[in-house]
Design a protein that fits this description.
With about 500 residues, this protein is α+β, with helices and mostly antiparallel strands. Among the domains are: about 30 residues; about 280 residues, Beta-lactamase (3-Layer(aba) Sandwich), CATH 3.40.710.10. It has 19 helices and 19 strands. The strands form six sheets. It has a six-stranded mixed β-sheet with strand order 3-2-1-6-14-15, with helices on one face. The chain has a five-stranded antiparallel β-sheet with strand order 8-7-19-18-17, with helices on both faces. A two-stranded antiparallel ribbon has the order 4-5. Strand 17 and strand 18 form a beta hairpin. Helix 14 packs across helix 16. The relative contact order is 0.12.
């Protein structure tokens, strides 16, 4: 009899252990594979109908989950969506996720590995599961100012960042869109909205073109040329550069011109200062031909070109030098050295390059997330500045800074000046070709930082495909306004 009781207890304990083990396995160890199963409709509804954490700017929600009266208990709501669509992205039951909604999805849903004990506590206390809040580094006022600087109907992007920390102060692009259209629980309405949005020229629904868009950088790439020249040891601050106008190549009729309406033509030789102040093409083409493609590519890589591993936390599209052409001939290398041909860069990449110069040659990892907090406001993580790479030496960065200050004080970027503050800058104009009416269209660029002696802010602007003679005409005045706004806060 006693043996039968003991056997019964052993069986009961074994069954209990098996049941407890199965529950533990399903709840904690198999959760990822079960959640990822496309046939798991329950998980799908839980994901898109749950109380997802808010995305915040200056403590205010720019994306939040609000209760509904439908079977789906919560729906995503976006506040001021046109201003922030490029950053938040969208969270849609029918169209998926993009931007911060995708990149920070585990924190926003509270399903990250470090939230395990929070989930266990919620299970035992019976609390409604709730995701964590993600606060961005964005300054709402600077974001609004930058967004309003891009005229409606004009393609453009602006990045404002702190060169010492990598924190993004503002990041905007146009055209934008209303992310609420994709958050609806009406499948037909969402599909119709998506079909309409994908047809908008220049739009990117999967992240701001400030970090997802690629453009010919034009003369802002001359900062790479300058760093490569000084790094090589073959050039120094007193070097005199050839400045033919135009540059010719043996055996072919192609010539590389300087800007026809500038000051470049008055000298057949130029200092670095003069060449940068007037954005002359041929001195920098001659540097590239002297150093060779490998040296130019190596310096471009030091500034972050050709790197597809940068996340901030969404993936940053990789900028490219020399492009997809392999080994370049002399005219191709000369064109690439002035940011034309197949060279492509995102506005964020140009800002990162500029920030490295501003920060003594040290490039910081860009970051859009300031803090992550639990629903009871306990801080899970906060921005910790991290060095991404050493782009150049402090001495070379200081020398390039001096020349960039001269570009504002004596050269083509004078409209970026701020009274009482030294501004360092470089402009760029990349020719795209003639439109149907015969007008030359250009990518208009500006990049710079201030104050030059103790940089607090980097501003990079691109207005692609516009009808202007030089990028400075369109971008420099806006850069000055942004410098003033940030420095006066």
């Amino acid at each position: 009899m006693n043996q039968a009781i003991r056997n019964s207890w052993i069986v009961a304990i074994a069954l209990f252990a098996l049941l407890f083990g199965s529950i533990s396995y399903v709840q904690f160890f198999a959760v990822d594979s079960l959640n990822a199963n496309p046939n798991n409709n329950r998980q799908l509804l839980k994901t898109f109908c749950g109380n997802r954490g808010p995305i915040l700017v200056d403590g205010q929600a720019i994306a939040e989950s609000v209760p509904t009266n439908t079977d789906c208990k919560f729906q995503r709501k976006y506040n001021d969506p046109l201003l922030y669509a490029g950053l938040t992205g969208f969270f849609s039951r029918f169209s998926g996720q993009s931007g911060i909604e995708y990149a920070m999805r585990e924190q926003l849903t509270g399903t990250s590995d470090d939230a395990l004990f929070d989930r266990i506590a919620q299970t035992f206390t019976g609390k409604q599961p709730q995701g964590r809040s993600v606060e961005l580094t964005i300054d709402a006022n600077i974001q609004k100012l930058a967004y309003d600087m891009i005229p409606d109907g004009v393609d453009g992007s602006i990045v404002v960042m702190n060169p010492k920390t990598g924190a993004i102060i503002a990041m905007v692009s146009k055209p934008s869109y209303d992310t609420n259209l994709l958050a609806s629980h009406d499948e037909k309405a969402v599909n119709a909205a998506m079909a309409s949005l994908v047809g908008v020229p220049g739009i990117n629904l999967y992240g701001s073109k400030a970090y997802k868009g690629l453009y010919s950088p034009g003369s802002v790439f001359k900062l790479v040329d300058t760093a490569a020249a000084l790094e090589s040891g073959k050039y120094n601050k007193d070097s005199i550069l050839p400045n033919p106008s135009p540059m010719t190549f043996p055996g072919i009729t192609y010539t590389l011109p300087n800007y026809a309406n500038g000051q470049c033509a008055i000298r057949d030789k130029a200092s670095f200062a003069f060449a940068l102040e007037n954005s002359c093409n041929t001195p920098f083409a001659s540097i590239a031909l002297d150093l060779g493609q490998d040296a130019m590519t190596a310096q471009a890589n030091k500034f972050g070109f050709n790197d597809d591993s940068v996340y901030f936390p969404d993936r940053v599209v990789d900028s490219r030098f020399p492009g997809s052409q392999g080994v370049l001939d002399a005219p191709g290398l000369a064109q690439s050295a002035i940011g034309q041909k197949d060279v492509l860069a995102s506005p964020l990449q140009i800002a990162m390059m500029t920030a490295a110069i501003a920060n003594g040659g040290q490039q910081m990892t860009p970051n859009l997330v300031k803090t992550v907090r639990t629903p009871d406001l306990k801080t899970v993580s906060s921005l910790t500045p991290e060095v991404l790479r050493q782009s150049t030496t402090p001495e070379i960065a200081a020398q390039i800074t001096d020349w960039m200050v001269s570009v504002v004080d004596n050269g083509i970027a004078s409209a970026a000046a701020v009274p009482g503050v030294e501004v360092a800058a470089k402009t760029g104009t990349a020719e795209l070709g003639l439109n149907e009416s015969g007008t030359m269209l250009n990518n208009a660029w500006f990049t710079g930082f201030a104050p030059a002696n103790d940089p607090e802010v980097v501003v990079s602007i691109v207005m692609p495909g516009v009808d202007v003679a030089t990028g400075a005409q369109l971008t420099s005045p806006n850069a000055s306004k942004l410098f003033k706004a940030v420095l006066n806060k």
